């Protein structure tokens, strides 16, 4: 769930461990593009505003090759 995912991200950020990242763009012209690679989380923040959805955001720094695939 959400808590488990945030804990995993927070642990990787604090330890500097590499994570596998996958970013998928919205579909345009009938296809989406997916970028996959390893990265280090260089910034992680979250907001638990009262009576609103909790959100988090982060910054990734790639540590090697990025693979691009269309679907």
Question: Gist?
Answer:
It is built from 1 helix and 4 strands; from the N terminus they run αββββ. The chain is an alpha+beta fold and 71 residues long.
Describe this entry's structure for a reader:
- Strands 1, 2, 3 and 4 form a 4-stranded antiparallel sheet that branches.
- The chain is α+β, with helices and mostly antiparallel strands and 71 residues long.
- The protein has 1 helix and 4 strands.
- The relative contact order is 0.25.
- β1 and β2 form a beta hairpin.
- The two termini are 27 Å apart.
Care to count the β-strands?
A: 4
Class computed from helices, strands and strand pairing: alpha+beta
Report the span from N to C terminus: 27 Å
Q: Average pLDDT value?
A: 89
Rg:
14 Å
- Structure annotation, total helices: 1
N-to-C order of helices and strands: HEEEE
For the sheet with most strands, the description reads:
4 strands, antiparallel
Based on the structure, what is the oligomeric state of the protein chains? single chain
Give the uncertain stretches in residue-range form: none
Instruction: Classify the beta-strand content into a percent band.
Output: over 45%
Query: Judging from the principal axes of the Cα atoms, what is the shape?
Result: flat
Bin the helical content. Answer: 10-25%
